[in-house]
Structure to design on (259 residues):
């Protein structure tokens, strides 16, 4: 046996739990062994060049308790829907519209537009690449489209709330937040890129939630002054808040499950 097979055989001999779905990945640039636990509980052993199979087996065996804890947590936090595979035909929700992924063998631009790009016929065009590259490209698309939407929609609340000099960001905010307002000196409303895969009424709630903070209401962060501002802007904000809590269990990618 050569390549990954020799390491797979060494790890298989450990008789690890079958539900761990252990795979190996050779990493030419790594200098040490590593382990990644993916959303849903799959385990990947990261192996540098010329690693000894027995050394790899000892490493995995020595981290068995750690793997058990991480797999248990990953399974508990896993979404209750299939994780995206980033293959042709998959659907993606963005700003209230559903798009079907269409992969093309093309340069980075198509018809003068940067790929990935949204088409009027509800197609999402992306270059045919590895799933990980497609994933990163689509996330960048969410960030780009989401930022344009946030700046456009947020300006109305800036006007109504007499908010001046506010900036916007769309980025990864981790697994616990859809959005956050950073006070001075940043004075920035930041939204998670994954929020733009929610129904539009919930995206609006996330934005309004942070814009209300940007008005600097007195008292507790979600106290009476903040609640009054929310009610002034969005009468059904409590209902939308409850809907968002439920929607958090159905985030569109397996690596985002807010609490």
């Amino acid at each position: 046996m050569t390549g990954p097979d020799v390491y797979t055989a060494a790890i298989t001999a450990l008789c690890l739990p079958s539900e761990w779905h252990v795979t190996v990945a050779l990493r030419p640039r790594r200098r040490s062994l590593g382990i990644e636990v993916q959303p849903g509980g799959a385990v990947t052993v990261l192996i540098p060049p010329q690693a000894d199979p027995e050394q790899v087996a000892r490493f995995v065996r020595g981290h068995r308790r750690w793997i058990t804890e991480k797999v248990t947590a990953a399974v508990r936090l896993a979404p209750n829907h299939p994780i995206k595979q980033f293959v042709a035909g998959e659907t993606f929700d963005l700003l209230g519209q559903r798009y079907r992924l269409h992969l093309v063998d093309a340069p980075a631009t198509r018809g003068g537009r940067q790929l990935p790009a949204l088409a009027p016929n509800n197609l999402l065009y992306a270059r045919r690449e590895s799933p990980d590259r497609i994933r990163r490209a689509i996330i960048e698309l969410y960030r780009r489209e989401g930022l344009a939407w946030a700046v456009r929609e947020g300006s109305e609340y800036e006007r109504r709330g007499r908010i001046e000099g506010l900036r916007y960001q769309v980025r990864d905010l981790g697994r616990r937040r859809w959005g956050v307002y950073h006070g001075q000196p940043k004075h920035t409303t930041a939204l998670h890129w994954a929020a733009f895969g929610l129904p539009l009424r919930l995206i609006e709630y996330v934005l309004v939630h942070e814009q209300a903070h940007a008005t600097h209401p007195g008292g507790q962060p979600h106290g009476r002054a903040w609640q009054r501002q929310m009610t002034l802007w969005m009468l059904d904000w409590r209902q939308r808040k409850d809907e968002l809590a439920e929607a958090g269990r159905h985030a569109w990618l397996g690596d985002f499950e807010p609490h």
Notes: The radius of gyration is 22 Å.
